[in-house]
Amino acid sequence: MKGEQQAKAELLARGRSNVEARLDKEALKLQAASIASLSCLDFTRYLPDRGPKGWQLWAGATTLVMYGYYQVGKTNQARIQQKMQERKVRYALAPLMQAEADREYMERELVNLRREAEIMKDVTDLKGNPWVPGSSQYFGGQWMPRKVSYFMRHQG
After folding, report:
1. pLDDT at 137
2. Is there a contact between 26 and 32 (Cβ–Cβ < 8 Å)?
3. Which pLDDT value is given to residue 62?
């Protein structure tokens, strides 16, 4: 009783009458009834209780890992094939590059020999013979190319 009187006092304090309060209670009852009628449908029987089973998780994880390794293998094979093609191109071009380097070396050597002949034109060796451009006073019996530094490449 005291609870109802307090509720009525609160409603009157808010400016509502008993009629409005009764209408509100009836509306709440109707809403509750509609919610209760929906709750009689059992949706949970169509849903699994706890999620996927353990073997399903293992099968899914194993499948994902195997697919990842498959992709890594495909990528590695493609990279190996690309490197092999680049290597074949390099092998095919190596003789041409070596011939170009040899030609440049011979041009530099010819310039150095002409310069040496000009500088050493009046010099004779220990036996009295005129100086031969390109000859070495330290002859060891085996021909070795001169060491051509970076600075000698860009001279005259």
Report:
1. 63
2. no
3. 98
Q: How far apart, in whole angstroms, are the C-alpha atoms of residue 99 and residue 15?
A: 107
| Residue 11 · residue 18 · CB < 8 Å | yes
The secondary element (H helix, E strand) that includes residue 126 is: none
Rounded to the nearest angstrom, the gap between the alpha carbon of residue 48 and the centroid of all alpha carbons in its chain is 41
Sign of CA dihedral 104, 108, 113, 115: positive
Residue 156 to residue 153: CA distance in whole angstroms: 9
Model pTM greater than 0.90? no
Q: How many CB atoms lie within 10 A of CB 7?
A: 13
More confident residue, 149 or 42: 42
For the stretch 88-107, what's the b/e string if a residue is b when 16 or more beta carbons lie within 10 angstroms of its beta carbon?
eeeeeeeeeeeeeeeeeeee
Answer for the pair 156, 111: CB distance below 8 angstroms, yes or no: yes
Task: Say if residue 122's pLDDT is above 70.
Answer: yes
- Minimal CA–CA distance to 102: which of 145, 143, 135, 136? 145
Which residue(s) pair with 124 in the sheet?
130
- CB 115, CB 122: distance < 8 Å: no
Are 145 and 105 in contact by the 8 Å Cβ rule? The answer is yes
